[in-house]
Amino acid sequence: MKTRYKWTISMKLWLALTLLILVVLGGLGVTITWLFGDFYLQQKLDSLRTEATEISTQLATVYSWSERLSLLETFKLTSGTQMVLLDSHGNILVISGSSLNTSQALQGRISGYLGGAGGGLIGGWSRNLQPSDFFTAEYLAQVLSGQTISIKALPINGSGQTMLLAAAPVGAKPVQGVVLLGSSPIPLQESIATFRRLILYASLIAVFLATAVSLFFARQVTRPLALMQRGATRMAKGDFLPIQGITSKDEIGELAEVLNCMGESLRNHMEWLSQERNLLQGIVESISDAVVMLSFEGVILYANDSAKGLWQENEVELLERKTQIVDFLQTMSQKLTQDENYATMTLGIQVLQVVMAPLAETEGIGGHVAVLRDVTASLRAEKARREFLASVTHELRTPLHLIQGYLEAIQDAVIPKHQQGEYIELVLDEAKRLARLVQNLQDINWLERGQNLQPVPIDMECFMSDLDQRFQGRAHELGLNLDVSKGSGELLADPDQLLQVFINLLDNAMSHTPCGKTVRVFQVEEPNEVRLAVQDEGEGIPKEALPYIFDRFFRVNKARSRKDGGMGLGLAIVRQIVEAHGGHVRVESDMGKGTTFWIVLPRMQSLD
């Protein structure tokens, strides 16, 4: 596609000035040459007329033709002029002066300069042309009537070179003869042609100089405009530097000052808008809740980091989750009213509380702003609290009812004396169960209140050997294999709390490992930390439950936990003890293959 040429204001002004100069100089040259040609032609005719009048006047003073002919010999005619003396009948009496066509050079001038002006080259004549060849009977009649004429005449045959004629009568009433003077216009036309060439050359030089001057003038005049245009372009792109290089005090200078003032105002306004935008963006980004701006067509216009976290995992967008959120927000926006702008949605295991408001624009509602708050933790905490109260109530009620029933039966002698010892053992087991429940609650409360630990250097070889001796008996009772590896090095920790960690982990591992399987405890050597693991070959933990396995009161299998007396507090206690030592705990599990709990503790870090 051909690029369209762009006409700048400088080129337009230069072209306008150039055309104006061409028109003025061209019209002036044509007018001058035309006036000059007519002026010299008329001047030549007037000169011939005057000369013919003078000759005729002198001839009229002489009454005999012989004297008149003698007098003619004394007259000196103007160069290039020929005289013919005619009688009253038009007969030629005398011819004197320069011949009009006597030389080859004159023929060439006639042919070269005046071929088109007078009807073409001279033709149809067997001799040189004379004034009488142009003097018709009509002209003769006018002169015989007493008139003096001066004309530009063609040959009588109607073709050929023109001639300038002047005729004056000799004598009066009656006219005795006619003095006829003739001159070729060729020298005059050559002079006019030379003058025209001079005018043309002068005009070309003047046009060239005027064009150069007008170009310089146009650039000087339009330079401030170009500077302002570039400055305005910069402002449109956000660069509000002032326009430099314009010092004139006229309207253009005032316009430049106005543009600079406007740029300064725009820069201040843009800085203010940027500050307000950064402030607003900082507020929105710092909000822990997810903020989503949705267009009326369902396109996400803006989302803060918390919102992106709902549909991104390791900076990879999960299209299904994003589509689910957008669809829910679109459906909610269609049902949105002033009184009902609240809804709850479930996204996997997350529960989101959504509040939506319309985004008002100048031409109506252009979209909606939604705030999504993750209430999963609070709902889970509330649910855990209710479950905790229900579980504690149940766990306290059951042993208390058993204790109360057995004691009442013993008191009322319902139970024979030989069986009372067995029932007393049952009452004691229930009492121990209550004591364990109370102790777990006390441990959690103790850890939550940030009670100081009592760290001492622990020999890991002795610690691992003690674990092996402590749990081998129970493993044998359950038909399990307990494999405790040999420890190495020292660890700065509270021995009682560290032992409680492994008691809870091994108790869970043995409870969930089938008969004949193996439970392992081993240590992995690291330079600055101790990595301990408790691994079982049980049924494993579901993947969706892994993030919540260390939450208080969380139980994967609630029915089994109640049967075994668990309250879902053991792993919560493990995490709090490990974190109190400056370490961390994590879990790995495959369904049907078993579970591994990793405990990572700093080797010799001092604890406050």
From TrEMBL:
<dbReference type="Pfam" id="PF00672">
    <property type="entry name" value="HAMP"/>
</dbReference>
<keyword id="KW-1133">Transmembrane helix</keyword>
<dbReference type="Pfam" id="PF02518">
    <property type="entry name" value="HATPase_c"/>
</dbReference>
<dbReference type="Pfam" id="PF00512">
    <property type="entry name" value="HisKA"/>
</dbReference>
<dbReference type="InterPro" id="IPR003660">
    <property type="entry name" value="HAMP_dom"/>
</dbReference>
<dbReference type="InterPro" id="IPR005467">
    <property type="entry name" value="His_kinase_dom"/>
</dbReference>
<feature type="domain" description="Histidine kinase">
    <location>
        <begin position="391"/>
        <end position="605"/>
    </location>
</feature>
<keyword id="KW-0812">Transmembrane</keyword>
<dbReference type="GO" id="GO:0000156">
    <property type="term" value="F:phosphorelay response regulator activity"/>
</dbReference>
<feature type="transmembrane region" description="Helical">
    <location>
        <begin position="198"/>
        <end position="218"/>
    </location>
</feature>
<dbReference type="InterPro" id="IPR050351">
    <property type="entry name" value="BphY/WalK/GraS-like"/>
</dbReference>
<dbReference type="GO" id="GO:0000155">
    <property type="term" value="F:phosphorelay sensor kinase activity"/>
</dbReference>
<dbReference type="InterPro" id="IPR036097">
    <property type="entry name" value="HisK_dim/P_sf"/>
</dbReference>
<dbReference type="InterPro" id="IPR003594">
    <property type="entry name" value="HATPase_dom"/>
</dbReference>
<feature type="domain" description="PAS">
    <location>
        <begin position="276"/>
        <end position="330"/>
    </location>
</feature>
<keyword id="KW-0902">Two-component regulatory system</keyword>
<dbReference type="InterPro" id="IPR000014">
    <property type="entry name" value="PAS"/>
</dbReference>
<dbReference type="GO" id="GO:0016020">
    <property type="term" value="C:membrane"/>
</dbReference>
<dbReference type="InterPro" id="IPR036890">
    <property type="entry name" value="HATPase_C_sf"/>
</dbReference>
<keyword id="KW-0418">Kinase</keyword>
<dbReference type="GO" id="GO:0007234">
    <property type="term" value="P:osmosensory signaling via phosphorelay pathway"/>
</dbReference>
<dbReference type="InterPro" id="IPR004358">
    <property type="entry name" value="Sig_transdc_His_kin-like_C"/>
</dbReference>
<keyword id="KW-0597">Phosphoprotein</keyword>
<feature type="domain" description="HAMP">
    <location>
        <begin position="219"/>
        <end position="271"/>
    </location>
</feature>
<keyword id="KW-0067">ATP-binding</keyword>
<keyword id="KW-0547">Nucleotide-binding</keyword>
<dbReference type="InterPro" id="IPR035965">
    <property type="entry name" value="PAS-like_dom_sf"/>
</dbReference>
<dbReference type="GO" id="GO:0005524">
    <property type="term" value="F:ATP binding"/>
</dbReference>
<protein>
    <recommendedName>
        <fullName>histidine kinase</fullName>
        <ecNumber>2.7.13.3</ecNumber>
    </recommendedName>
</protein>
<dbReference type="GO" id="GO:0030295">
    <property type="term" value="F:protein kinase activator activity"/>
</dbReference>
<keyword id="KW-0472">Membrane</keyword>
<keyword id="KW-0808">Transferase</keyword>
<dbReference type="InterPro" id="IPR003661">
    <property type="entry name" value="HisK_dim/P_dom"/>
</dbReference>
